[in-house]
Amino acid sequence: MKPHMTYYFRFDICGLQGGFTLEKHEQQCNDNIRRTVGRDKIVLILVNGGVDSAVCDALFYKALLQSDDSLRVHDIRIDNGFLRKDESEQVVTSLQQLGLNLRGC
Q: What is the CATH topology of the domain spanning 20-104?
């Protein structure tokens, strides 16, 4: 496709606006999490050590941690045995370095 054709496809046909940034997307995720969970609910997150569950866990922590309210998010690490060697432990270590408190089973 020629450059002008990709522009036409993205903006005229698909309706994209061109203002996407990771920061805006993260803020939208945080706002959606806060709106959905509210102020009084507790969240249980199962983390298998893969990227999807790890990112989800980190987003929930960032969205819901207000002052010292770390008791709102409970993380349980589930080792399903399907990840690469040591991958689950590497992800767990990274999440713990962010301050997340994972419990394992």
A: Rossmann fold (3.40.50)
Give, in order, the Cα–Cα distances in Å from 97 to each of 20, 58, 72, 91, 92. Answer: 29, 11, 19, 10, 9
pLDDT in tens, 75-103: 888 877 887 888 877 877 887 887 777 77
Q: What are the boundaries of each domain within the chain? A: 20-104
* Residue 19 annotated as lining a ligand binding site: no
Model-level pTM? Answer: 0.67
67 is in an annotated binding site: no
104 assigned to a ligand binding site:
no
99 is in an annotated binding site: no
**Per residue in 12-45, pLDDT tens?**
888 888 787 889 989 999 999 999 988 888 889 8
48 labeled binding residue: yes
